[in-house]
């Protein structure tokens, strides 16, 4: 299923001492997320809000004119993200078997991002 989320995370970053022009980091945190792509016409509908845990690693590269920080982060949602009340709202009985085919979903993401400072 395709989804689009807005997330605002609160992370704790554990930084190693800077060595030459490099510095590694480990991070962990929590993130409330809002689903932007759930529609009532879908077979399966995800809940509008969910809460996730994040774990990842970062690395600072101190370059002559800017600092580059690539980040690899793993995001795991807590709890069931499937809206279990949605099959009761479907009016088309032919779509009901598809809506009842799954009992739970878990949101899992791998996020790779770059920060420039």
Mean pLDDT over all positions: 87
Quaternary status: single chain
Q: Which regions have little confidence, pLDDT < 50, spanning 5+ residues? A: none
Categorize the overall geometry. elongated
Strand content: over 45%
Overall number of strands? 6
Count of runs of 4 or more consecutive helical residues: 2
Question: What is the share of helical residues?
Answer: under 10%
Derived from helix and strand composition plus strand pairing, the structural class reads mainly beta
Major sheet size, sense and barrel closure: 6 strands, antiparallel
Summarize the structure in words.
With 117 residues, the protein is mostly beta strands. The chain has two helices and six strands. Strands 1, 2, 3, 4, 5 and 6 form a six-stranded antiparallel beta sheet that branches. The longest helix is centred in the last third of the chain and has 7 residues, at 93-99. It is elongated, with a radius of gyration of 19 Å. It starts with a strand and ends with a strand.
